[in-house]
Amino acid sequence: MPLLWFIATLIVFIGLYFLPTIIAERRRHADLLAIFLINLLLAWTFIGWIFALVWSMCTPSAGASLSERLNELEKLRTSGKISAEEYQKLRERVLAAGV
């Protein structure tokens, strides 16, 4: 029974230790690798952990690229989910926002 508690405690500790990396991964953070490395190498200082946590939550997540958004619109148009007019309006909006 003590071994089971040790293993459970270890799993919880590892999850908390890598919480900044988990958050960054879930948010598709653009700097995921850098956050992971700081988390791995400096989190034991607690200041490094706080830094990685704040960084993982403050920087905007990496969104879909312009080509990915245009491809998604094309798929919607070809599948008939949006009309050609809707496609053209959305395409212009995506291109305007991407520039």
**Beta fraction of the residues?**
under 5%
Oligomer designation: single chain
Number of separate strands: 0
User: Strand count, sense and closure of the main sheet?
Assistant: none
Total separate domains: 2
Question: Low-confidence spans: pLDDT under 50, at least 5 residues?
Answer: none
Share of residues in helices: over 70%
- Radius of gyration, rounded? 21 Å
Rounded mean pLDDT is 89
Spell out the helices and strands N to C.
HHHHHH
Distance between the termini: 60 Å
Number of helical segments? 6
Helix and strand composition category: mainly alpha
Shape category: elongated
Describe this structure in words.
By secondary structure, the chain is mainly alpha-helical. It folds into 2 domains: about 1-60, no CATH class; about 65-99. About 75% of the residues lie in helices and about 0% in strands. The protein is built from 6 helices and no strands. It has helices at about 1-15, 20-25, 30-40, 45-60, 65-80, 85-99. Helix 2 (about 20-25) packs antiparallel against helix 3 (about 30-40), helix 2 runs parallel beside helix 4 and helix 5 runs antiparallel to helix 6. The longest helix has 16 residues, at about 1-15. The chain is elongated, with a radius of gyration of 21 Å. The protein starts with a helix and ends with a helix.
